[in-house]
Specification:
Elements lengths: L23 E12 L6 E17 L11 E5 L4 E3 L9
Antiparallel strand pairs: 1-2, 2-3, 2-4
């Protein structure tokens, strides 16, 4: 199930690549982190080797995503899931 969470109105792509002026940045290493529920601190839970990051929210037409919008698009083939034993505090 997907949940809608608060997110910014845009992503400053120039903070990822200096002087970038476009609306979509390709081949970005994207890392997702989460707070450990009992120990606190952030842990790396998943990353994508080559994703596209959009400056502005993209509208989804996929019913399996319940049409939730997104800022990052990546292929499942580029996904890596951190093993629980490797999820060290960041």
């Amino acid at each position: 199930m997907f949940t809608k969470s608060w997110h910014p109105s845009h992503i400053a792509l120039e903070r990822i690549q200096a002087n970038f002026a476009g609306n979509a940045l390709d081949n970005v290493l994207t890392v997702f982190v989460a707070t450990h529920p009992t120990q606190g601190g952030q842990r790396i839970v998943r990353w994508f080797r080559s994703s596209t990051v959009y400056r502005f929210e993209q509208e989804s037409q996929l019913t399996e995503r319940q049409r939730f919008s997104y800022f990052i698009k990546a292929s499942e083939n580029d996904a890596e899931i951190g093993r629980a034993s490797c999820r060290e505090r960041v």
